[in-house]
Amino acid sequence: MKAVFGFDVGTSSSKGVLTTLSGEILATAQRPHDVQRPHSGHVEMDPRIWWTELCDVAHELLDQQPEVEVVSVGVSGMGPCVALTTRDGEPVRPAILYGVDTRAMDQVARLTEELGGAEEILKRGGSVLSSQAAGPKFLWVKDNEPEVYDRAERFFMPASFLVWQLTSQYTLDHQSASQCTPLYDTESLTWYEPWAKQSAPAIELPELYWAGETVGTVTAKGHAATGLPEGIPVVTGTIDAWSEALSVDAHNVGDLMLMYGTTMFFINTVDSPVLSKELWGTVGALPNTRNVAGGMATSGAITGWLRRLFGDADFAELTEQARQSGLGANGLIMLPYFAGERTPISDPDARGLILGLTLDHSRGDLYRAALEGTAMGVRHNIEAIEAVGGKIERIIAVGGGTQGDLWTQIVSDVTGRPQVIPTHTIGAAFGMAWLAACAIEPIPAHEWNPPARMLEPNAEDHARYDELYRLYTSLYPANMEQMHALAAIQRAGDGRS
Predict the structure, then answer these.
(1) CATH number for the domain running over 2-241
(2) How far is it, in rounded angstroms, from Cα 428 to Cα 175?
(3) Whole-model pTM?
(4) Distance (Å, rounded) from C-alpha 94 to C-alpha 45?
(5) How far apart are CA 440 and CA 290, in angstroms?
């Protein structure tokens, strides 16, 4: 039986899947991992972990399905990240992760001024510089670790690093490149050399491809490490959220992919470029597509944090207690800015807030407040997307948070929007399996992973949430000054003032 291998590196785990060419899931495997947070605002990971986990997962899946013949491979990963390496692909330091890493804000300000201001960068790059942009992170390393930077010659993201390990081809997909602001020109769809040289001096830029294009084949070295057959095609990967959108056919104009994960991510496909200082304008994963995107810095990360605080409590038990807490969490509101916030406020110094606590509140109330707080953040982002010209006709929910119905129902009730729940919510690895399959035998995305059901909002609950949402949106402006003061204290205590 012919099969394809899809693999994805996420923030908290790596996942792999073997499927048939028609999308039947044969086997899955997962490897949990942790990011490193060496200082306040720093979030990083050793790229070698990505390759080790791919090799482990590939061997596990092949051992589970010894009768299959793997004929194509696709990989994706979190991003935009900056993994600096030597010319041979040897990492010179841990990879700096996407917008949850906020270390380069001084470089954001400096580059914005040097390149002619936010409007000029927005016009060419599709987004203003923020903690999400890859460009300033190169300069942070150059400014703070000059000896390390002097050794760097190339850069990778998780997907491109794994493609390099499998094929020895130095590539990057256009979508990922479009989040390397200000290195990439979203109009000409090429690297913009003047800004690239200023933002990432002396770094060789990879050759660009669209996600799903075949860029090489598994080498003898790749075969020896993974067990995947030598000579089979490897397709260009992309950032995990975009692969996840592909996995559920959420790349048509009017679609909004809503990804429930460690962080929350939004991708709205539009018919022409949308420019906004609050959101991210990018090219799509596939040719001739455009997106307006956003992301929250935390979502599932907060529920995981609460679980640890509660002595590694069982998620199912906490979820049931949150259900019993009821709408409004018995008078609690949570701002989910526990790692700063990305869109739409773009404030790395925002901080989490839990308002209304009394001695009568339970852990179920706190857990409910976390689910409702992230749902409020979803509504805030949806309203921001529509305010700048995004058009949302269909919301497709993906990710691990869609398992069970409480969180997704709360999001629909808070936003007043129905959500399509697909048949498979395995995630980005399944999207890369689709692209890998299409390299052999094209299959329409809507046939690969058809919708399973529609989740409708409760009109009465939505009306009740409207009042809570007004309170939610008032909290950040009223507490921003205090949040920033506390963030400064936290950095000083960490030695990073």
Answers:
(1) 3.30.420.40
(2) 15
(3) 0.90
(4) 5
(5) 26
**What is the distance between the alpha carbons of residues 365 and 324, in angstroms, rounded to a whole number?**
9
CB distance 237 to 202 below 8 Å: no
Burial 174-202 (b: 16+ CB within 10 A, else e): bbbbbbbbbbbbbeeeebbeebbebbbee
Helix (H) or strand (E) holding 72: strand 69-77
- 280-335 pLDDT, tens digit each: 999 999 999 999 999 999 999 999 999 999 999 999 999 999 999 999 999 999 99
CA–CA separation, 97 vs 109, rounded Å? 19
Q: Are 78 and 98 in contact (CB under 8 A)?
A: yes
Return d(Cα 39, Cα 491) in angstroms, integer: 8
Cα 434 to its chain centre, rounded Å, is: 19
- Quick check: helix, strand or coil at residue 186? coil
Domain ranges of the chain: 2-241, 249-424+458-497
What are the φ and ψ backbone dihedral angles of 25, each rounded to 5 degrees?
-80, 120
Q: Identify the DSSP state of 248.
A: T
User: Cβ–Cβ contacts within 10 Å for residue 295, how many?
Assistant: 23
What Rg do the C-alpha atoms of the chain give, in angstroms?
22
CATH of domain 249-424+458-497: 3.30.420.40
What is the rounded distance in angstroms from the CA atom of residue 201 to the CA atom of residue 247? 36
Q: By C-alpha distance, which of 282, 217, 285, 276 is closest to 250?
A: 285
